[in-house]
Amino acid sequence: MLRLITGFLILVLALAGCGDVSVDPIRIGFISGMTGRFADFGLPGRNGALLAVEQRNQTGGIEGRPIELLIRDDAQESEVAIKAVQELLGLQIEALIGPMTSGMVKVILPVTEPAGLVVISPTSAAVELSGKDDLFFRLASTMRESMHLSAALHYRRGLRRIAVAYDINNRVFSESTLEEFRTAFGELGGEVPMAKSFDSAKPPVFSDLIQELLSAQPDALLFISSAVDTVLLAQQARKLSPGLPLIATEWAATEQLIELGGHAVEGLYLGQLFDRNNISSRYQSFRDAYQIRFQQEPGYTSVMGYEAASVLLDALSRRAKGQPLKEVLLRGSFEGLQQTIVFDRFGDSQRRIFTTVIRNGQFVVIE
Amino acid sequence: MRVWRLRTFLAFLLVATLLVTLMIVGSAVLFVRLPQIAEENRRLVRIEAEELVTRMEFLMDSLQIRLNPLEIALQNFLPYESHLLLDSIAVKGSAFTAVYILSPEGKVEAIGGASIEHQRHLDLVGNDMSANSLYQTVRRERRPIWSDRYLSVLSGHITIGLAIPIHDRVIIGEIPPHYLVRILGIARMLRNESIWLIDQRGELIGDTDSPSQVGLINLLGLPVVQKAVHGESLPGIFEYQGRRYYVAAQHSQKLDWYFLVKLPAGLEDPDIRSTLIMVTVSFFGPLLIGALLAPLWASYMARPVGELMERARQVAEGHSKAIWPRSSIVELNQLSTDLEHMDSAIHEREQQLRLLNTELENRVTQRTADLSQANHELSETLDTLRCTQRELVRTEKLAALGELVAGIAHELNTPIGNGLMAASALHDKVREFQKAIQEGLRRSTLDHFVAYAETAADITTRNLHRAAELVTSFKQVAVDQTSSQRRTFDLKEVINEILLTLHPMLKRTPHQVMMEIPDGLWLDSYPGPLGQTLANLINNAVLHAFDEGESGVIRITAASAGEGQIRVQVSDNGKGIPSTLQERIFNPFVTTKMGQGGTGLGLHIAHNIVTHLLGGKLIVCSDEGQGSEFIMLLPEQAPRTVSGAGGTGLPPI
């Protein structure tokens, strides 16, 4: 009798059965702007990180535990970002990859630092965030090096007066970058006759902005902005002053720059943190995997996202029991796709900068 | 074995029956219904996916139709003149956030949209869009193209783009992704259905469940999505974030999107859940009612039985004459009737038994009286028997004494006879001598007479001495025999004397008595009874050991047995004693020569004397045809506790 009852209950439970026991996954957070104006920056970054995690899971995860990538959108808004990070903290993530922009990094650090959460930003490059002994790590070198290179290059090209438009929606990045450029260019004997800020969250009339910059009679224009804004600025510049040399920063160095900009961005100079034509097998196999997985070419943030995730996963698997993740990251060197990644004691790393120019709808490396 | 109360048992039986029934029915329902529901939902989800695509294509077509007026407009106006028309198409609340016309070179010729202020119109007109992939695709394919990853020229947002070629120009409309989700919501038909709209790259471009995930998630990592994208058949059920779904996918050729329709499966499936709840309720509901009603019903059933039991107990305790209960159950009534019959039958039998019992008691009293009468008679008989026995023993003793006297007389006869003969012969000689004196005495005659007188005197003296000796001897034996005195004596001497007294009797038999007793065996005991014992044993041998005409040997031996004991054996070489007789040979009145002079008391008396008076043992060893041997083990010191040295050696009866 009892057996019959038990059997029946087991049957009911079996029908209800959805409780399967599996190993606890290792959770990693990913945060980036994936909607809105900077989505071109964030989405490929997400793809890169996702690919790294999926590849690691295919080879058995870390010590048999699968890795779960929890993806959140910061929408380039402070409140959204803080809420998302708090939610991720509640989900017991081991570390956070992102945000992609320095502005968002600055917003979330006051939340993550007290929680003891390691944050690795694939692309954040603002000078302001460097040189601090905290739990923040970055893969991109600061804009100081990049702006020095850029200033030197354009000075050599004979440009002496370069007017700047910069987006204060990512103020931490854009203002410090402007200062770095101004300093570097000034030291060489160049000049920034005018720097106009705009807020991409409330887009201005770009033709007016360009008109204003042109009034300073610059030899060239430098746009410290995302790909979308750089394109919109470039479109106006081409309409108002065709042939004026245009310069952008790594922030705009996404694949969408060319797609959106078309002819308007032809001849645009900008730095890149990777070489699209790298022939190392490591990079090539990544590129193939990425194309198969996402049916598109990897961009600069794809590479950075992939590397950030790889560094984090390597560190997690190297970590001894009870060892702080920060220590592992600071002590080791990590194999990137095109270079070895080593963090200094502040968690900053040096990255080679490839200066490119857009020719015939392609990024061409010039140095 | 576990013992139950009837009420409990009935209650359990009822509940168990209910439980088993419900379980069988419930399981049957579940086993039949659940797979049916699952199959139904699988079919439903497949059909829905197919129909959804049709509906979505129709809805998207209707969006496309909205751009048709532009074709006519472009034939009649210059492109830049049509921006008011564009504004009216991309009016606030419509599907389009922006609509614009691209020149054959890919430059924006006119743009309309609710959120675009006039100033920004100027910004946008003239912008180069030639590198745009949607533009390039539509130029290449010359047909309307939908793109899910179209970068908005206004915001850089990823939007849904619709491109229509009109002659050598291209019209592009931007539709925000959330609008697509709205359309999906309208297009879906099933209550619990959720839809994923996925593009070629696995990007989620529409999700009716969580629209916030749109644009963030790439689903190509899911095997089910990979299968959908590669056109393979999907598993009926798949799991996502811990929930199970029935799933079907359909590809829209026109839109080049994948529609993944999901219906909750397992417990999430409302049909399955409601079935399970229904089964559970219909399982536990009746069970609960059953659990409540069963005890009541059981006690209702058990009550008449209880009454019957109570009634039966009353009968058992002897209370009768009550009415036997009746209930509504036929069998119980039958039982009640039967018990009633049994009750009255028991009563009748009890009466009979009581009668019989009284009779029996009377009979027992009668028998008891008879028995005590018999007992009394028996006691009297026993007393008589004892007297007779005592009489017999005395007779025996007298007989022994008679024999003794006869023996003495016989023994004395010879010496006294001899003396008398010698004296009378001398008397004759004296008379001859006197005559000789008168005739003349001659010296030779005198000498002869003197010699003769001397011889006669000698003979007479010797024989009288012998007679005196015998008398002394007999006197001792007589004293011993009659007084049973205790004294210290030499065994050999006493046995000699006894044999002497037996001599006259033995002389008449052909048997020989041999005695082998060493000197110096001293006893402090009763020589009289010992003598009687020996006499009895010898007498027994003479009487019983030998057949008529046989001459046997009776041997008397004695030796020290150590530990203050002396063994005396009386053995013969006769025919032996049958073993059946040996066991009871010392019992009184046991004889093989009943009516031939044997009293059957000889050995009994001997045994009693040895064991009681002399404090020893008497045992018999005999094999048939091998002779017999009686062995006496006598203590050198007879026990003094036995009073009555004058004990008669009477056996107790």
User: Unreliable stretches of chain A, pLDDT < 50, 5 or more residues?
Assistant: 17-21
Number of distinct helices of chain B: 14
| CATH superfamily descriptor of the largest domain in chain A | Response regulator
Form type of chain A: globular
Order of helices and strands of chain A: HEHEHEHEEHEHEHEHEHEHHHEEEE
User: Pair with the most extensive interface?
Assistant: A-B, 53 and 45 residues
The second-level CATH architecture of the largest domain in chain A is 3-Layer(aba) Sandwich
Quick one: how many beta strands of chain B?
17
Largest sheet of chain A: 5 strands, parallel
- Report the β-strand fraction of chain B as a percent range: 15-25%
- The level 1 CATH classification of the largest domain in chain A is Alpha Beta
Write the layout of secondary structure elements.
The complex is a heterodimer of chains A (367) and B (653).
Chain A: H1 2-16, E1 26-32, H2 39-58, E2 67-73, H3 78-90, E3 95-97, H4 102-115, E4 118-121, E5 136-138, H5 143-156, E6 162-167, H6 171-188, E7 195-198, H7 206-214, E8 220-224, H8 227-240, E9 246-248, H9 255-261, E10 269-272, H10 281-294, H11 300-318, H12 325-331, E11 333-335, E12 340-342, E13 354-359, E14 362-365
Parallel strand pairs in A: 1-2, 1-3, 3-4, 4-5, 6-7, 6-8, 8-9
Antiparallel strand pairs in A: 10-13, 11-12, 13-14
Helix pairs in contact in A: 2-11, 3-4, 5-6, 7-8, 8-9
Chain B: H1 6-65, H2 68-76, H3 83-89, E1 98-102, E2 108-112, H4 118-124, H5 133-141, E3 145-151, E4 158-166, E5 169-175, H6 177-187, E6 194-198, E7 204-207, H7 223-229, E8 237-240, E9 243-252, E10 257-264, H8 270-317, H9 330-440, H10 443-483, E11 487-490, H11 491-507, E12 512-516, E13 522-525, H12 527-544, E14 553-562, E15 565-572, H13 579-582, H14 602-613, E16 617-622, E17 628-635
Parallel strand pairs in B: 12-14
Antiparallel strand pairs in B: 1-2, 1-5, 3-4, 4-5, 6-7, 6-10, 8-9, 9-10, 11-13, 14-15, 15-17, 16-17
Helix pairs in contact in B: 1-8, 8-9, 9-10, 9-11, 10-12, 11-12, 12-14
